[in-house]
Design a protein that fits this description.
The protein is an alpha+beta fold. It has two domains: about 150 residues, Glutaredoxin (3-Layer(aba) Sandwich), CATH 3.40.30; about 45 residues, no CATH class. The chain has five helices and eleven strands; from the N terminus they run βββααβαβαββββαββ. The strands form three sheets. The protein has a seven-stranded mixed beta sheet. Strands 6-7 form a two-stranded antiparallel ribbon. It has a two-stranded antiparallel sheet with strand order 10-11. It is globular.
């Protein structure tokens, strides 16, 4: 079920912050009323595509910050595994130097609530046992959450498909433009380009707020 237009699911779990400190009470609620959030899931620590995405997000942290937006990562690995990976040099396939929070979804509940877990649990009433079909890790899900805690965008990539980080900056620009001017943003819109507004007669007018 799509989360767009709804409150982002709440959680309070362990995470690594600032690339070096484990906390046990991390929550996205701390940003409500203060910051927009790019919350992204990746499959596993110590893999191949994942560090390329994580470093790509890190390279754009300042750009996100200019837009009043924080970046938060998440996988089903433990906070201890996150910390070990954060202490592994980049040239050794690590993510040393990454400063944004990385959440530990040990229980897989966060991944399930956001609809990105790569499989599902089922219960056999006859044997009274649980089983899991699929991959017990997260797809590459990405969520843009506004300052009110509402999900404004979501996308989910299969495991082999890496993300384009610049697209999330474009989406934040579009969301901020909509909030500021009340206009809507057409296909391929970028900051500074012409936006749109629908008139009372159903006619679409194009104009730039700049």
């Amino acid at each position: 079920m799509a989360l767009v237009g709804k409150k982002a699911p709440k959680f309070t779990v362990g995470a690594v912050i600032n690339g070096e400190e484990i906390v046990d009470d991390f929550s996205l609620e701390q940003y409500v009323g203060k910051k927009n959030v790019i919350f992204f899931f990746y499959p596993k620590d110590f893999t191949f595509v994942c560090p390329t995405e994580i470093h790509a997000f890190q390279e754009k942290v300042a750009e996100f910050a200019k837009r009043d937006t924080v970046v938060v990562g998440c996988s089903t690995d433990s906070e201890e595994t996150h910390l070990a990976w954060l202490n592994t040099p980049k040239d050794n396939a690590g993510i040393q130097g990454v400063t944004f929070p990385i959440v530990a979804d040990n229980s897989k509940v966060i991944s399930m609530n956001f609809g990105v877990l790569g499989g599902e649990y089922s219960f056999d009433n006859e044997t009274r046992t649980w089983s899991f079909a699929g991959a017990p890790i997260a797809y590459r899900g990405t969520f843009l959450i506004d300052k009110e805690g509402i999900v404004r965008h979501e996308s989910i990539n299969d495991f082999p498909l890496g993300r384009n980080i610049d697209e999330y900056i474009r989406l934040i620009d579009a969301q901020l433009h909509v909030e500021k001017y009340g206009e809507v943003c057409p296909a391929n819109w970028e900051e500074g380009e012409t936006a749109m507004v629908a008139t009372s007669k159903g006619v679409v007018e194009y104009f730039s707020a700049n």
